[in-house]
Amino acid sequence: MASGAVVGAACGSGSGGSAGSTTVPSSTTEPPTTTTTPPQATYEVQPGDTLLAIADFFGVSPAAIVAANQLASADQVAAGQVLTIPPIPPAALTITPNVAPSGEVLTFELTGAKAGEAVIFEITTANDDEPIGQAGTASPDGVARTRYDSSGDDPGVYTVVATGDRGTTAEAPYLVQGG
């Protein structure tokens, strides 16, 4: 059994052990593609509304609303203004690199989280070790990122599951090679 420290946006530790025969991830992890796009919504700004509050309510970034409406400034929304609210992007977890020797520092990046969402990155192995992780918070643009030191991890395939407290979830594998 090996463990390493997680530092950065989410701080904690990961745990892993040897994995059995499992498919090895490719050198890059691509999010799944889909042909359906969630519909956009509209929202009429109410007195006292702020762009940050509207974005938080819809689970999108303020920058996404600014871009969708070609606003000159995030500070200039007015009561009665009708805003187009873009759909929430699909969640995707990227591990860089996703094939590395033990001791390599890996970056886990979750995109498509809701702004301010608390995210837990958990690491498991094919041997069903107890997952270990700790919460971080997604940035206003919906990105949660952390770094993981795989020092001491046994060779094998590991799975990272990113779970947000507002429903976002994604997972991706990585391979620790023997060194």
Sequence-ordered SSE layout with sheet pairings:
Elements: E1 2-8, E2 12-16, E3 41-44, H1 51-58, H2 62-69, E4 82-85, E5 92-96, E6 99-101, E7 105-111, E8 118-125, E9 135-137, E10 144-149, E11 156-164, E12 169-177
Parallel strand pairs: 6-12
Antiparallel strand pairs: 1-2, 1-10, 3-4, 5-7, 7-10, 8-9, 8-11, 11-12
Describe what this molecule looks like in 3D.
With 179 residues, this protein is mainly beta. The chain has helices at residues 51-58, 62-69; strands at residues 2-8, 12-16, 41-44, 82-85, 92-96, 99-101, 105-111, 118-125, 135-137, 144-149, 156-164, 169-177. The protein has 2 domains: 2-29 and 89-177, Sandwich (Immunoglobulin-like); 41-85, LysM domain (Membrane-bound Lytic Murein Transglycosylase D, Chain A, Roll). The strands form 3 sheets. A 5-stranded antiparallel beta sheet has the order 2-1-10-7-5, with no helix packed on it. Residues 1-36 have low confidence and may be disordered.
* Strand numbers in spatial order across the main sheet: 2-1-10-7-5
Tell me, briefly, the overall form.
elongated
CATH class of the largest domain: Mainly Beta
Count of the domains: 2
Q: Between the first and last Cα atoms, what is the distance in angstroms?
A: 16 Å
Q: What is the typical, i.e. mean, pLDDT? A: 77
Q: Which architecture of the largest domain does the CATH hierarchy give at level 2?
A: Sandwich
Q: Helical segment tally? A: 2
- The multimeric state of the shown protein is single chain
Strand content: 35-45%
Rg estimate, integer Å: 19 Å
Report the structural category.
Answer: mainly beta
Query: The CATH topology of the largest domain is what?
Result: Immunoglobulin-like
pLDDT < 50 stretches: 1-36
Q: Helix fraction? A: under 10%
* Count of beta strands: 12
Order of helices and strands: EEEHHEEEEEEEEE
How does the major sheet shape up?
A: 5 strands, antiparallel
CATH H-level homologous superfamily name of the largest domain: Macroglobulin (MG2) domain
